[in-house]
Sequence to fold (328 residues):
Amino acid sequence: MRDVIIFVEHNGGQTRKVTFELAAEARRLADALGGKAHALVAGVGSAALARQLQNHPLDKIFHTDDADVDKFLLDPVVDYLEAVAKVTGPAAILVPNTMLGRDVAGRIVARLDAGLASDVTELRVENGRVHCIAPKLQGSTITTCAFKGGDYGVITVRPNAFAAQLQATGAELVPLEKPAGKTYGMVVESDVEEATGEIGLEEAAVVVSGGRGLGGPEPFETLLKPLAEALGGAVGASRAAADAGWVPYSLQIGQTGKIVSPQLYIAVGISGAIQHKVGMQTAGTIVAINRDGTVPIGETADLLVVGDLFQIIPALTTLVQEAKAAHT
Ligand SMILES: Cc1cc2nc3c(=O)[nH]c(=O)nc-3n(C[C@H](O)[C@H](O)[C@H](O)COP(=O)(O)OP(=O)(O)OC[C@H]3O[C@@H](n4cnc5c(N)ncnc54)[C@H](O)[C@@H]3O)c2cc1C
Fold:
């Protein structure tokens, strides 16, 4: 495999940030393999998104505005990805490790009889082979795996693991023909948009998470949300908070929730059970705020602030807001 293809995830006319991270990593990998870096963007509005992607270091951007991609569940987009893979020949296919990306990855692996590496946080090329580094077993083990030599390898990449790179390399726009003879059965009846207008948790550079220590749903709105907004981040939660019905499960971080890797993770009133830690321990800097100085989150945190969150969070929010105001 020499070329690299990225699957572009987009929603509401916006390309997800992880796409730009994949584009930069695809360029680096393709250069190391001696191949080219390509992208597939499919669905209504893709022609415009493809033009925006020309600001990123790609060689070809395959695109289609086919409305069937939005109307039917998964199969049309997988058809297009398969078509691009057949055009380029043997390739590594990078897909975001998101809800949609994981579904797409599972299907394209079956279509291409490819290998799969999931939740990858680092990639390198050695002797012409792509090596994938990924945390496993709840982060207790870091694995390195390489594809055995088949034509295709599919890699789901953790958002925030790589830096995006703005660099126009004159990528060619390639419109795609609709694959012939396809019929689709699974119609998308409606698309439920959670947390409209907020930054996606998995992609946020800053996550402010709350746990049982918040004591109810209100402090998520009145304390955590203002702090997250001041820091340009998103609100997350422990399972205890989600189980209590204080926040939707879509905010839950951990083993049975979302895995996040922001630059800054602030755990507020969260004890740091292993099932929570596996969802956030790869964050760049971890700050915990807890009234108990002996909590397990203290072992993972770079900074454990011992005190009452109801006093600390408003004061911290004010400091951040003042600092921002001073710099504008
Ligand atoms: C199979 C399985 C899967 C699981 N998956 C997940 C998962 O994905 N994510 C997850 O989070 N959990 C998960 N759990 C649950 C996990 O084991 C813990 O029960 C949960 O994480 C605890 O949540 P918490 O830290 O909010 O609550 P607690 O453990 O009750 O901690 C609350 C903390 O708040 C502090 N506190 C209280 N009041 C204040 C205050 N005024 N100021 C400052 N600090 C205060 C306390 O000192 C305490 O440390 C899972 C469990 C199982 C068995």
Notes: The radius of gyration is 21 Å. Residues 133 and 144 are 4 Å apart (CA to CA). Residues 201-326 form a domain with the Rossmann fold fold (CATH 3.40.50.1220).
